[in-house]
Write a structure and sequence with these properties.
Distance between the termini: 56 Å
CATH class of the largest domain: Alpha Beta
Organism: Chelativorans intermedius
Radius of gyration: 22 Å
CATH superfamily of the largest domain: Periplasmic binding protein-like II
Order of helices and strands: HEHHEHEHEEEHEHEHEEHHHHHH
Keywords: Signal
Protein name: ABC transporter substrate-binding protein
InterPro entries: NMT1/THI5, SsuA/THI5
Strand order of the largest sheet: 2-1-3-10-4
Largest sheet: 5 strands, mixed
CATH topology of the largest domain: D-Maltodextrin-Binding Protein, domain 2
Pfam family, one: NMT1
Helix content: 40-55%
Number of domains: 2
Strand content: 15-25%
Number of helices: 14
């Protein structure tokens, strides 16, 4: 009996020792968010909570963020290793400052920008925005592309009445008629739909892609130092992240629970709604043609052309291929 107890204790000690050794062996990675936690950020929380990161030998911590510019700065300065940011912001930063960051995987292969309005407001198609009052958040990336969308429609900002308001005020402004239209992301569709339902209104959503704004948006972006000094860690992380994206598509309810488990102030149903909204920007006809996470050269070039037009850059200021590195994607 004593021998069995001793054997059991020895086995437990060995198991504990292996666990400690594995924990010590895990490569530490700092993931940088470009905005607040939510359903559209689900894959990184899934990677941690569901064990995909740990299975890849990674110990991942998440840093909060307040926009792509801040995220890019933190990556460029080495405060974080890899994270999410708008590809357009990456291109602009590289064109002006040659920042040492590189996009390694597409997350949203479509732009999330859209006009939201209500049935009865006289907007059945995107061109009907002419003459309308439009409210937007002061800091949204959509404001950069608005002039291009209007130009594609044969208009300018003088053809609308544009006001800027706190993001939290946009929904109420639309529902009460204080604004005919608001500019918001497709990742917020469920939230605005809920507000419309409560107000007894019918929501109308007009994506800017309908006006020809086809471009890459959110991307997985890494510090060049991280890619150069720890390439194998980067490959393992990207493979685990992509696995988490695929899990989120197949199991949105479980993915939402994973986010809420790590960010308890979020409600599971709200996270799931936002995740489902975001999934259409990840999995769509572009994904079917080019593959998950891919940067197709022509679409990449078109994205840079749009960024350059929107921000007044010379097209020769950047070779868009220098903003991405496809070699870290699984199978490449």
């Amino acid at each position: 009996m004593i021998g069995k107890i001793a054997t059991s204790l020895l086995s437990s000690a060995v198991t504990a020792g292996l666990a400690v050794a594995n924990a010590e062996a895990a490569d530490k990675v700092i993931y940088q968010l470009d905005w607040l936690p939510g359903g559209d950020k689900a894959p990184i929380y899934v990677c941690i909570e569901m064990g995909f990161c740990s299975e890849a030998g990674l110990e991942v911590t998440i840093e909060s963020g307040r926009g792509s510019s801040e995220a890019i700065t933190k990556l460029a300065t080495g405060n974080s290793d890899i994270g999410s940011a708008g590809l357009g912001a990456v291109m602009a930063a590289k064109a002006t400052e040659d920042v040492p960051v590189t996009a390694v995987m597409s997350i949203f292969n479509k732009g999330p920008h859209a006009f939201y309005t209500l049935a009865g407001n006289g907007m059945e198609e995107i061109a009907d925005v002419k003459g309308k009052t439009v409210a937007t958040s002061p800091f949204t990336e959509s404001n950069v592309y608005l002039p291009l969308v209007l130009k594609d429609l044969g208009m300018s900002e003088s053809d609308i009445t544009l006001t800027k308001a706190d993001p939290g005020a946009l929904g109420p402004m639309l529902m009460t008629g204080a604004s005919d239209v608001i500019i918001a992301w497709l990742t917020d569709l469920s939230r605005y739909q809920g507000q419309a339902n409560q107000a007894g209104k019918e929501l109308v959503v007009l994506p800017w892609s309908a006006a020809g704004l086809d471009l890459y948006s959110a991307a997985l972006v890494a510090s060049d130092t991280f890619l150069e000094e720890r390439p194998e860690v980067a490959k393992r992380f990207i493979a685990a992240f992509r696995k988490s994206v695929e899990f989120s598509k197949e199991n949105p309810a479980e993915a939402a629970k994973a986010v809420a488990a790590m960010v308890p102030e979020l409600q599971v149903e709200n996270v799931e709604g936002s995740l489902r909204d975001a999934l259409v920007l990840i999995f769509n006809e572009v994904t079917e043609k080019d593959g998950l996470g891919a940067f197709e050269p022509d679409r990449l070039k078109a994205t840079w052309e749009r960024v350059a037009q929107a921000q007044g850059f010379d097209l020769g200021a950047l070779d868009p291929e220098t903003a991405v590195d496809r070699s870290f994607l699984p199978g490449d």
